[in-house]
Amino acid sequence: xxxxxxxxxxxxxxxxxxxxxxxxxxxxxxxxxxxxxxxxxxxxxxxxxxxxxxxxxxxxxxxxxxxxxxxxxxxxxxxxxxxxxxxxxxxxxxxxxxxxxxxxxxxxxxxxxxxxxxxxxxxxxxxxxxxxxxxxxxxxxxxxxxxxxxx
Length: 151
Prior knowledge:
The chain is of the alpha+beta class. It is about 35% helix and about 35% strand. It has four helices and six strands; from the N terminus they run βββαββααβα. Strands 1-2-3 form a three-stranded antiparallel sheet, with no helix packed on it. A three-stranded mixed sheet has the order 4-5-6.
Protein backbone atom coordinates (compact mmCIF):
# COMPACT_ATOMS: atom_id res chain seq x y z
CA UNK A 1 0.00 0.00 0.00
CA UNK A 2 1.26 3.46 -0.76
CA UNK A 3 0.24 7.09 -0.88
CA UNK A 4 1.81 10.36 -1.93
CA UNK A 5 0.99 13.58 -0.08
CA UNK A 6 1.65 17.01 -1.60
CA UNK A 7 1.42 20.32 0.23
CA UNK A 8 -0.62 22.99 -1.53
CA UNK A 9 1.99 25.64 -0.81
CA UNK A 10 2.71 28.61 1.42
CA UNK A 11 -0.83 30.01 1.20
CA UNK A 12 -2.24 27.53 3.70
CA UNK A 13 -2.22 24.03 5.09
CA UNK A 14 -4.00 22.15 2.32
CA UNK A 15 -2.61 18.77 1.28
CA UNK A 16 -3.50 16.51 -1.63
CA UNK A 17 -3.15 12.77 -1.12
CA UNK A 18 -2.92 10.40 -4.06
CA UNK A 19 -3.54 6.83 -3.02
CA UNK A 20 -1.85 3.79 -4.48
CA UNK A 21 -5.15 2.92 -6.19
CA UNK A 22 -5.06 6.28 -7.99
CA UNK A 23 -7.66 8.21 -5.98
CA UNK A 24 -7.29 11.77 -4.73
CA UNK A 25 -8.23 13.07 -1.29
CA UNK A 26 -7.84 16.65 -0.13
CA UNK A 27 -7.05 17.49 3.49
CA UNK A 28 -6.83 20.85 5.23
CA UNK A 29 -6.13 22.23 8.65
CA UNK A 30 -8.20 24.35 10.99
CA UNK A 31 -7.88 28.12 10.61
CA UNK A 32 -6.15 28.39 14.01
CA UNK A 33 -3.40 26.15 12.60
CA UNK A 34 -2.96 28.00 9.32
CA UNK A 35 -5.56 26.07 7.35
CA UNK A 36 -8.57 27.44 5.55
CA UNK A 37 -11.10 24.73 6.48
CA UNK A 38 -11.44 23.64 2.84
CA UNK A 39 -11.43 19.89 3.46
CA UNK A 40 -11.48 17.30 6.24
CA UNK A 41 -8.65 17.21 8.77
CA UNK A 42 -6.28 14.24 8.49
CA UNK A 43 -7.52 12.74 11.77
CA UNK A 44 -11.13 13.06 10.59
CA UNK A 45 -10.16 10.92 7.62
CA UNK A 46 -8.56 8.36 9.95
CA UNK A 47 -11.85 8.17 11.85
CA UNK A 48 -13.94 8.04 8.65
CA UNK A 49 -11.67 5.37 7.18
CA UNK A 50 -12.11 3.28 10.31
CA UNK A 51 -15.88 3.59 9.99
CA UNK A 52 -15.68 2.55 6.35
CA UNK A 53 -13.45 -0.40 7.19
CA UNK A 54 -15.80 -1.82 9.81
CA UNK A 55 -18.97 -1.08 7.79
CA UNK A 56 -17.45 -2.99 4.86
CA UNK A 57 -16.76 -5.97 7.12
CA UNK A 58 -20.23 -5.95 8.67
CA UNK A 59 -21.96 -5.91 5.27
CA UNK A 60 -19.73 -8.71 3.97
CA UNK A 61 -20.18 -10.89 7.08
CA UNK A 62 -23.97 -10.41 7.12
CA UNK A 63 -24.23 -11.26 3.41
CA UNK A 64 -22.15 -14.40 3.94
CA UNK A 65 -24.50 -15.33 6.80
CA UNK A 66 -27.38 -14.99 4.28
CA UNK A 67 -28.90 -12.08 6.17
CA UNK A 68 -31.07 -9.76 4.04
CA UNK A 69 -29.13 -6.59 4.83
CA UNK A 70 -30.11 -3.45 2.90
CA UNK A 71 -28.12 -0.68 4.58
CA UNK A 72 -25.46 -0.19 7.21
CA UNK A 73 -24.71 3.20 8.74
CA UNK A 74 -22.01 3.75 11.33
CA UNK A 75 -21.78 6.87 13.48
CA UNK A 76 -18.49 7.34 15.29
CA UNK A 77 -17.83 9.54 18.32
CA UNK A 78 -14.20 9.92 19.31
CA UNK A 79 -12.18 11.60 22.01
CA UNK A 80 -8.53 12.54 21.66
CA UNK A 81 -5.72 13.05 24.13
CA UNK A 82 -5.32 16.64 25.34
CA UNK A 83 -1.54 16.63 24.83
CA UNK A 84 0.68 15.70 21.90
CA UNK A 85 0.47 13.27 20.32
CA UNK A 86 -3.29 13.77 20.31
CA UNK A 87 -4.14 10.13 19.67
CA UNK A 88 -7.66 8.82 19.89
CA UNK A 89 -8.38 7.70 23.46
CA UNK A 90 -12.03 6.64 23.11
CA UNK A 91 -14.08 5.70 20.07
CA UNK A 92 -17.71 4.64 20.12
CA UNK A 93 -19.24 3.05 17.01
CA UNK A 94 -23.03 3.02 16.66
CA UNK A 95 -24.33 0.82 13.86
CA UNK A 96 -27.77 1.19 12.31
CA UNK A 97 -28.44 -1.93 10.26
CA UNK A 98 -31.45 -2.09 7.95
CA UNK A 99 -32.78 -5.23 6.44
CA UNK A 100 -35.49 -7.83 6.40
CA UNK A 101 -35.83 -10.21 9.36
CA UNK A 102 -32.27 -9.58 10.54
CA UNK A 103 -31.19 -11.68 13.48
CA UNK A 104 -29.72 -9.57 16.30
CA UNK A 105 -27.22 -12.32 17.16
CA UNK A 106 -25.92 -12.29 13.58
CA UNK A 107 -25.58 -8.50 13.57
CA UNK A 108 -23.73 -8.55 16.89
CA UNK A 109 -21.50 -11.38 15.65
CA UNK A 110 -20.65 -9.42 12.48
CA UNK A 111 -19.73 -6.32 14.49
CA UNK A 112 -17.61 -8.33 16.93
CA UNK A 113 -15.80 -10.18 14.14
CA UNK A 114 -15.02 -6.89 12.44
CA UNK A 115 -13.64 -5.30 15.61
CA UNK A 116 -11.80 -8.38 16.88
CA UNK A 117 -10.49 -9.97 13.69
CA UNK A 118 -10.99 -8.18 10.37
CA UNK A 119 -10.99 -4.37 10.57
CA UNK A 120 -7.30 -3.46 10.52
CA UNK A 121 -8.08 0.19 11.25
CA UNK A 122 -10.15 -0.35 14.41
CA UNK A 123 -7.76 -3.04 15.66
CA UNK A 124 -4.86 -0.62 15.18
CA UNK A 125 -6.69 2.25 16.91
CA UNK A 126 -7.57 -0.05 19.81
CA UNK A 127 -3.88 0.14 20.77
CA UNK A 128 -4.51 3.68 22.10
CA UNK A 129 -8.29 4.00 22.29
CA UNK A 130 -11.00 2.28 24.30
CA UNK A 131 -13.34 0.95 21.61
CA UNK A 132 -17.04 0.46 22.31
CA UNK A 133 -19.96 -0.23 20.04
CA UNK A 134 -23.71 -0.42 19.99
CA UNK A 135 -26.23 -1.24 17.31
CA UNK A 136 -29.85 -0.99 16.34
CA UNK A 137 -31.74 -2.93 13.73
CA UNK A 138 -34.37 -1.35 11.52
CA UNK A 139 -36.55 -4.07 10.06
CA UNK A 140 -37.68 -3.08 6.56
CA UNK A 141 -40.80 -5.26 6.98
CA UNK A 142 -41.88 -3.19 9.98
CA UNK A 143 -40.74 0.11 8.49
CA UNK A 144 -42.92 -0.53 5.44
CA UNK A 145 -46.01 -1.06 7.61
CA UNK A 146 -45.26 1.77 10.02
CA UNK A 147 -45.15 -0.61 12.99
CA UNK A 148 -42.60 -0.10 15.73
CA UNK A 149 -40.22 -2.98 16.46
CA UNK A 150 -40.72 -4.82 19.74
CA UNK A 151 -38.31 -3.85 22.50
